[in-house]
């Protein structure tokens, strides 16, 4: 099993589910791992023919990367064609985040959602890795190539990514890895609009809310493009919208995040 697989999976523990720690202890846990593990836990409680349609996650407290996470899944609805679950994530008695996930049977209906990935050939781009430190991520198992374009409110981040290790042919796993990767520095976009970055640590930053809508299947071991922009920021919060686009131009998922981007208070003295 690859490290990526281990980090996004959960194991049963009575009525709860346990998600692996990423390490190192004392470092802030990666929010994308919470989202992927929460989705994994919810997915385990619905019929196999129901696929996730959307997920909304509220981050309440940060977690320790060296500590396993306990997920409690509460059934909210089970109908003829759809199900809904609430998932609460805890470290001990501390509630870290809560999410709702909706699942549904695939049904026939109108379809659209194609985007031209542009002239960029990910194979021809330099391997950049993430735009800053990521100590809790298995970067040796990810190929990440980032191209930033535009300045000010025209800033757009193009993040090409794929898993660089063999993965089993499991659609659930590929979706979980996509969720995991897409949270990588997404809150960077509203700071970049103003010439700052999360890596520079000029601002306190972190995700406070994340919504995802799942449209089409994705393969994590093939090239995918996460294209993000920031339409607005105010009062120490910034919003990011993004599309996850497969290499064939199909929009696989839509993302919206609110991030905390408050200025750091000057150090006394």
TrEMBL record:
* The Acyl-CoA thioesterase-like C-terminal domain, residue ranges: 140-261
Matching InterPro entries, A to Z? ACOT8-like_C, Acyl-CoA_hotdog, Acyl_CoA_thio, HotDog_dom_sf, TesB_ACOT8-like_N
* Keyword check for Hydrolase: yes
Q: Which GO terms describe its molecular function?
A: fatty acyl-CoA hydrolase activity
Domain Acyl-CoA thioesterase-like N-terminal HotDog spans what residues? 24-103
* Record bears the keyword Mitochondrion: no
Could you name the domain of life of the organism this protein comes from? Bacteria
Compositional bias, Basic and acidic residues, is annotated for 109-118
Q: Which UniProt keywords apply?
A: Hydrolase
- Give me the ranges of the annotated region Disordered: 107-137
* A biological process term (GO) from this entry: acyl-CoA metabolic process
Could you say which protein family the record assigns here?
A: Belongs to the C/M/P thioester hydrolase family.
Q: What is this protein called?
A: Acyl-CoA thioesterase
Organism of this sequence? Mycolicibacterium phlei DSM 43239 = CCUG 21000
């Amino acid at each position: 099993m690859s490290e990526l697989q281990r980090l996004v999976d959960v194991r049963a523990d009575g009525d709860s589910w346990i998600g692996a720690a990423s390490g190192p202890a004392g470092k802030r846990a990666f929010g994308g791992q919470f989202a992927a593990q929460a989705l994994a836990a919810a997915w385990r409680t619905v019929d196999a023919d129901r696929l996730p349609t959307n997920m909304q996650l509220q981050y309440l407290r940060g977690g320790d990367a060296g500590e396993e996470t306990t997920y409690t899944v509460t059934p909210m609805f089970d109908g003829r064609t759809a199900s809904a679950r609430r998932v609460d994530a805890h470290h001990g008695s501390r509630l870290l985040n809560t999410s709702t996930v909706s699942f549904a049977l695939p049904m026939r209906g109108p379809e659209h959602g194609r985007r031209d990935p542009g002239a960029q050939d990910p194979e021809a781009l330099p391997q950049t890795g993430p735009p800053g430190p990521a100590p809790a991520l298995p970067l040796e198992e990810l190929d990440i190539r980032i191209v930033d374009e535009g300045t000010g409110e025209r800033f757009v981040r193009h993040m090409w990514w794929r898993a660089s290790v063999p993965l089993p042919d499991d659609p659930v796993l590929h979706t979980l890895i996509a969720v995991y990767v897409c949270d990588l520095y997404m809150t960077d976009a509203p700071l970049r609009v103003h010439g700052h970055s999360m890596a520079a640590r000029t601002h306190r930053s972190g995700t406070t809310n994340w919504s995802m809508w799942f449209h089409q299947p994705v393969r994590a071991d093939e090239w995918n493009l996460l294209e993000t922009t920031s339409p607005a920021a105010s009062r120490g919060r910034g919003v990011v919208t993004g599309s996850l686009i497969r290499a064939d131009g199909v929009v696989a998922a839509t993302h919206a995040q609110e991030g905390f981007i408050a200025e750091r208070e000057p150090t006394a003295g």
